[in-house]
Task: structure prediction
Amino acid sequence: MRIVSLLPSATEIVCALGLQQHLVGVSHGCNYPPGVEALPRMTSTRVPYTAGSDEIDAYVREHLGDNTALYDLDMAALAAVRPDVVVSQALCDVCAVATGDVRDAIRSLPGSPQLIDLTPNSLTDVFDDMLRVGDATGSQARARQLVASLGARRDRVAERSERIAKADRPRVMFFEWLLPPFSGGHWNPELVTLAGGDDLLGSPGGPSRTLDWQSVSDVSPDLAFVACCGFTIERTLADIAALSDNPAWLSLPAVQSHRVCVADGNAYFSSPGPRLLDGLELMAHALHPSVHPAPETGSVWRPGDQLGQ
Result:
């Protein structure tokens, strides 16, 4: 079997099912698990990721507004690897090649490769997508085991959080972007609740939303959890530094009390794959360190920490 993955979460799912040796091509953004970075790249991006976050936001809005592509699919490369299965997504045109472009490309390939479109809006949807990939690749048993293991981790976090008194649950503003601010969407509000927080301004099961700083200030979050889409901790800290003269940001109770947590959004929150459970455990420990044990993977930056702590 020859599998092409056109988004990082699909690559992680395929590898978690023990099928890494069957991957023959990945997207430009696939960098986990180790080894996939050496595979042929099927896509490229036009998004200027080295620009400032406000510039990136303006660029994406402009291109979505006039329906021009943010990503390019390399048809010659795709044809060369002769895939049997192509895993893509129909959730977000900001995240990967548009599903219509992928469908058109698949129709032009010999052999009629099978296309699997992932469309998760919740943790349950993510688990269902894992089962779908398992069905398409003959890895049903492995997929069931993976989902059972991840589901058990979710349930353990939820059970511990249920013991937390309502008065002790922080009022959390989850930021998927800072310049401008975006609320958490899709599965991220669910993660906040499972971790023992009360989510503010999130869109459970729906896309993240652009906010104005006054709206954020009005809800007065006492904890800010920042996991910017596609960004590492280091990249996100640059945006936090850019807010050093923003009165609304500085007025937030979370900022004034130094209850700001910064996580690697790219690794643990943006991509609907197995590492969402690592993200949940990271967040749970950050919100309630006396209730939830420190996770085995990853870290959260807080004011006063040195990078790498």
Q: What stands out?
A: The chain has a mean pLDDT of 93. Residues 140-162 form the longest helix (23 residues). The CA atoms of residues 186 and 206 lie 5 Å apart.
